[in-house]
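User: Can you predict the 3D structure for this chain?
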Amino acid sequence: MAKYRGPKHKLSRRVGKCIWGRSGSPAEKRPYPPGQHGKNLRRKLSVYGIQLLEKQKLRMYYGGIMERQMRRIFDQARRLGGNTGTNLLMLLESRLDTVVWRLGFAPTIFSARQMVNHCHVLVDGEKVNIPSFLVKPGMVIAIRPRSRKIPIIVDGAENPPMELPEYLERAAKSFEGKMIGTPNIANIPVQFDTTSIIGFYSR
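Assistant: Here is the predicted structure, written as structure tokens:
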């Protein structure tokens, strides 16, 4: 499956800030688009421009999801009924790579996706190597036994996130976590202007 393979800091500079909240990002020193004209680029965004920027932020935040895949996720969110924006964020937060990241087994969404691709993750005891696999409440996410000596994974197990989202649980120093609820707009630890995103895809 196609994925973004370029420099991660360029994604942040395109939108003027580090969308993952990490300190030391080049976007902090250079909060303008890359390229020789980026610093002098001054223009007021149109409604379409605002919608496009918010959609791009969402794609970048969840690991540089490619446009075709994001369109499929949006169409799925719309078919679920109810609030499309809430459904969209719920689907993105339920992706296996996002759950692995939220549980703290990987320091970034990009390393979480690589961890899943390389078969280090089990779902209910079964190997799953598809980052877009949708985790459902009650499912147990674990690091397979053979992978529990890898330094980056050991560090993640020893140093869990300060605060897990309400829909996840994981014991300290454990290589297992569980989804105990459904992500919703109230407990997802990041917010986007989903109205703009819906407007972009509804054109």
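The mean pLDDT is 85. The CA atoms of residues 102 and 164 lie 7 Å apart.
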